[in-house]
């Protein structure tokens, strides 16, 4: 029986992790009473009594929580932005490479990827690794997400009875072009030029698409859409959760993979211009599902358990 503590279990990511783990027979959840949820001594005791601790906290609180860890056997999986590019932390995307999977399997500090970053990295990492795209390629990334990605405050705003009519339309944000996911997108893919990233929050609950257009004549190797699709399919061959294809309906909806840990990589376009799309649940493979998958890998279990 594995003992698991969720530090920050009241947020959207923590709540979904708890829901998935409560259905398992191999996990015992360590729970603190509401009065001690923010008590440092109580949290320290719970963290060090656990085999796995999930940090579902703001960045500063996550950094503080790591200082409470004294048990060398406790695996820490941080869902915040705090440690995604930090030295000594495994980046929690096992499908990227054998090296990424091994670092998760043998590490005690695992940084869960950001939701938007998961889609971008899944699309771009294989292309850079294969030498098809140069590290200084001028990437542009457009993405849409359901409002559940905005956290409890954002959810309450969208679901309020007398909400602003401005919420009826897609809303572009991160207008300074310095979104918090950009550092990991750049670092994990080995990019030397920071992408232009345009995320939208939209009036639906859950689901995400991350879109990356490419010009064939700017690639190191002349490739059309079919060639890129083949490369991605070969890179992720055998993956339990990632699939590669193209959209045949003429439309790509963002919410078709809700409540799963699956991610679809779609390649459309033609010989001159290519459109790459990652579609997934922003709270599944984009957050809580990925965290559970990382726990399974770290504990030497089948990564598909409860997913």
Task: Summarize this entry quickly.
This protein has helices at residues 12-22, 40-49, 59-66, 98-106, 115-129, 151-159, 182-189, 225-235, 284-298, and strands at 2-7, 27-30, 52-55, 75-78, 90-91, 109-111, 140-146, 171-172, 196-202, 208-215, 242-245, 263-269, 273-280. The protein is built from 9 helices and 13 strands.
Could you please describe the fold and organization of this structure?
This protein has nine helices and 13 strands. The longest helix is centred in the middle third of the chain and has 15 residues, at 115-129. 31% of the residues lie in helices and 21% in strands. By secondary structure, the chain is an alpha/beta fold. Strand 5, helix 4 and strand 6 form a beta-alpha-beta unit. It has a seven-stranded mixed sheet. Strands 2-1-3-4-6-5 form a six-stranded parallel sheet, sandwiched between helices. The mean pLDDT is 95. It has helices at 12-22, 40-49, 59-66, 98-106, 115-129, 151-159, 182-189, 225-235, 284-298, and strands spanning 2-7, 27-30, 52-55, 75-78, 90-91, 109-111, 140-146, 171-172, 196-202, 208-215, 242-245, 263-269, 273-280.
Overall pLDDT level: 95
> How much of the polypeptide forms β-strand, as a percent range?
15-25%
C-alpha end-to-end distance: 18 Å
The SSE string, one letter per element, is EHEHEHEEHEHEHEHEEHEEEH
Q: List segments where confidence is low: pLDDT < 50 over at least 5 consecutive residues.
A: none
Number of helices: 9
Q: Tell me the strand order in the biggest sheet.
A: 8-9-7-10-13-12-11
Oligomeric state of the chains? Answer: single chain
Major sheet summary line:
7 strands, mixed
* Helix residue percentage: 25-40%
Helix/sheet category: alpha/beta
Q: How many strands appear in the DSSP assignment?
A: 13
Shape: globular
Compute the CA-based radius of gyration.
Answer: 19 Å
């Amino acid at each position: 029986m594995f003992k698991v503590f969720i530090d920050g279990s009241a947020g959207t990511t923590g709540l979904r992790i708890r829901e998935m783990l409560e259905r398992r027979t191999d996990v015992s959840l360590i729970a603190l009473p509401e009065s001690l949820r923010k008590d440092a001594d109580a949290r320290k005791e719970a963290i060090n009594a656990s085999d796995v601790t999930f940090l579902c906290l703001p960045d500063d609180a996550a950094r503080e929580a790591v200082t409470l860890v004294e048990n060398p056997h406790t695996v820490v999986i941080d869902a915040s932005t705090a440690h995604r590019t930090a030295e000594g932390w495994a980046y929690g995307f096992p499908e990227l490479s054998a090296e990424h999977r091994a670092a998760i399997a043998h590490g005690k500090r695992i940084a869960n990827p950001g939701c938007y970053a998961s889609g971008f990295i899944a699309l771009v990492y294989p292309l850079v690794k294969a030498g098809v795209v140069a590290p200084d390629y001028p990437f542009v990334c457009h993405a849409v997400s359901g409002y559940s990605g905005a956290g409890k405050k954002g959810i309450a705003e969208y679901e309020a009875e007398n909400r602003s009519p401005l919420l009826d339309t897609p809303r572009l944000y991160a207008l300074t072009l310095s979104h918090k996911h950009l550092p990991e997108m750049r670092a994990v893919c080995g990019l030397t030029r920071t992408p232009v990233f345009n995320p939208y929050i939209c009036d639906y609950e859950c689901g995400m698409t991350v879109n990356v257009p490419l010009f064939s004549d700017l690639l190191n190797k002349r490739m059309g859409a079919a060639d890129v699709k083949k490369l991605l399919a070969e890179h992720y061959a055998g993956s339990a959760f990632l699939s590669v294809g193209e959209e045949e309906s003429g439309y790509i909806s963002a919410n078709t993979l809700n409540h799963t840990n699956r991610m679809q990589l779609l390649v459309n376009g033609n010989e001159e211009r290519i459109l790459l799309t990652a579609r997934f649940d922003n709270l599944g493979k984009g957050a809580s599902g990925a965290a559970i998958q990382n726990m399974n890998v770290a504990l030497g279990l089948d990564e598909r358990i409860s997913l």
